[in-house]
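COURSE: Structural Biology Practicum
ASSIGNMENT: Worksheet 4, Part C
STUDENT ID: 0417
INSTRUCTIONS: Below are two proteins. For each, the amino acid sequence is given first, followed by its structure token string. Answer the questions at the end about the second protein only.

PROTEIN I
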Amino acid sequence: MNRVAVINVVGLTKSQLGEDTPRLNAFVEKCALSAFPPAFPAVTCTAQSSYVTGRSEAEHGIVGNGWYDREAAEHKFWKQSNHIVKGEKVWDVLRRELPGFTCAKLFWWYNMYSTADWSITPRPMYPADGRKVFDVYTHPMGMREEIKADLGEFPFPTFWGPMAGIPCSEWIANSARWVEDRHQPTLSLVYLPHLDYGLQKYGPGAPEMKKELQDIDRVAGELIEYYEQRGIEVILLSEYGISKVSKPIHLNRIFREKGWIIIKDELGLEQLDCGASKAFAIADHQVAHVYLNDMSLLEEVKKTLLEVEGVEEVRMGKELWGEGTPGAERGGDLVAVSEENAWFTYYYWTDDAVAPDYARCIDIHRKPGYDPVELFFDPAIKNPKVKAAKFLLKKKLGFRGLLDVIPLDATLVKGSHGRDKVREDEMPILASTKHGEITKAEDVFQVILEAVRG
């Protein structure tokens, strides 16, 4: 039984390795390096679920970072229970085979209530007085206060939003060392999200990416060296590559023009009523799940999608997921895939004055789709960081308020992902001392098994 650390550097591809990544280059050069087609959709929750189960999206049921729950008539994004992921997990297989095996799952998604021995995941607290208290959730529960006493509070604002940056990945890397020093897991799964932010915000090849690459090279490189010094085999992994984009696609606005979307007036602002709509889109980067409450419109909706500028193809849900699978239960009746330089917004309003209140906020759960514009401060706001600081102070004092600092300009976004048909230099990568052929995301599961088995 070998000890193994899987370091997931999100957004890392062959095209990102270069003069600004000397530590990562040095590791890759002494390894076997594979680029492989990403999971579909090529997004975090789907990719990670394929890696830890060795199953397809149809089988494990994670058809995106979020989807529409037909029974509850609600969209659900960024949920955290590991029970959502169907199939036996890699740590359960190894624990059954190898007496004494243990696993630490550090910031990989679906990290609550898994059977990993140690886990840490971002999880705010929401007291009844309206506050949002930044925090993490850990298993065992007592580890939360112990690790914060040693490392300080998790820098939550740098994990997502306009202030997203290297501090959160530094804290995660430090937490991996902290867990290793105390518990020596057989398998450590470590998620470093930093590179993802700059690539979406600035786009691949932008001048600003030089520092972003240097920062993640330092953090990931130092963590690799730490593990290697302890005789731990390192697997360097990523989930997807990011393409330059310049064309946002507003499917729900098009559906609204067709009369398929139902809008509710709530306190003078517009809310999308998915349960009452005939057809609507749940956007997730370069993929959009389209759900129909009126199946008689299927061919018309498909035809409309194919006529939208920037849509490359439309896949039938039944063909993607099959009948009676977890994927079929959750995935769209139609799945639209954008062209390389385009991506899908969730926007459904036609007048910014009546956009929902959450549109200008960092609100990853309430929005009916992923919103990368949350990475930007509204340029029309003077001193947005001061406004954010005042908001956080109000929250600490128990007052209600909106941190409405996010713009409504989707053209700001310069990078996106989600397509499975991408160039080799934009495919995810895996580097390890040795591994078999990787032809799909599910093969990563076997690589991890074989590395630990020795």
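PROTEIN II
(use this one for the questions)
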Amino acid sequence: MKALIDPNNALSRGLAEIRTEYQVPAGFPADVLAAAEAAARRAPTEHRDRTAWPFVTLDPASSTDLDQAFTIDREGADLLLHYAIADVAWFVDDGGAIDGEAWRRGATLYLPDGRAGLYPPVLAEGAASLLPAGPRPAIIFTVRVAPDGGVRLDGAERAIIRSTAKLAYDSVKDSDLPPGFAELADRIAAAEDRRGASRVDPPEQEVDAVEGGGYALAFRPRLASEDRNAALSLATNLAIADALQAHHTGLFRVMAPPDEHAVQRLRHTAKAFGLIWPANETLAQYQLGLDAADPKQAAFMLAIRRAGAGASYVPFREGVVPWHAAMAATYAHATAPLRRLADRYVVRATLAIANGRPVPEVVTAAFSQLPGVMARADTLGGQVDRAVIDLAEAVMLQNCVGRGFPAIVTDVDDRGVRMQLRDLPVVARVAAQGVEPGDALQVVVSAVDPAHRMVSFQRAG
């Protein structure tokens, strides 16, 4: 997963094997690189000059593929979020070499030792990235945020912007940010609570060296700056989704809630971590009180994210309201076009409808084709994520053969018993008879093979 960090290169060999196994691209074809070099020199001609607006970016310190920049104004009781999104479509011709390669990839793949980008670095980390090195073409979405957190798209335009600062999550100060930043995030969070949204943002996982040798999975809790920044993207995506739905077009991100069986399994997982989940609280109610700074609660947040059937994309369908259960709203992806193919087309459609123009036919046609492409990209990303986590768990436990761990049964199915270790963020299977979900187990690590990303357990006694 993109959040897994490996500062000591404990996973290098295994990561190389994962890249080979899943055919992670190592670079770009020559014709794509040549087209990208030419596109990077393309001068904007359809953009208004907004270089005087005080845009900033806020990302991990090491990020160079910057999709978003923002500034905030106040109009009466409302806040106006001016959210600038990288104008990728300005550099990518429909049907050209860059476009074709992007359709083959679908999304950027992230591994601890680097990413396989959707677009060549000369664009994704250069001409199209909203870096403060100089003026950049962008699409500015203006989102009106009411005092109750309600959002509405007020406008969209192509513009030239100049980011005044590349801010980092771990070092940003309130004085660095536009006035109203925290207030806007609070409004969006309050609106989520009222809607009953069940979105969770687990902390990042890291692979840390431990004293005496070996490695351990650890959690890096999310920072307040990250959560507030995410609220800006959320507000924009919600406003865009509503606008697209109202104009009978678009591509939407949808997700069903965890079913009853998954929720029951989560209750057993909570028990495994020693968490108290009152019987009269729903999952949505309970997770609002989770604290990502607590390792056990952080691990449970990851379990919640993995419990659902997963999100997918659907095009507009007459008479159907697309719904994202975690957001408790109609939702779209528009704010990461450097990293997701679908966003480029959602941005183009929104720009058209906001200015009274018809959505380009090539965009409408793409909306029916993108769900399959993005599903394949999501599947590949999930497989790579799972392989990386399996590798990390094997590295973490390679010196633990014969060691016992307390666990709790979270599920019993036709493949056997699934358990959650009580003291580590590890879910695994073990052969055990006569147990039910919620039962406590003592298990022993029986074999570990980092080369094959495998850890085996057996029931103690």
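ANSWER KEY EXCERPT:
Q1: The CA atoms of residues 18 and 387 lie 7 Å apart.
Q2: The two ends are 36 Å apart (CA to CA).
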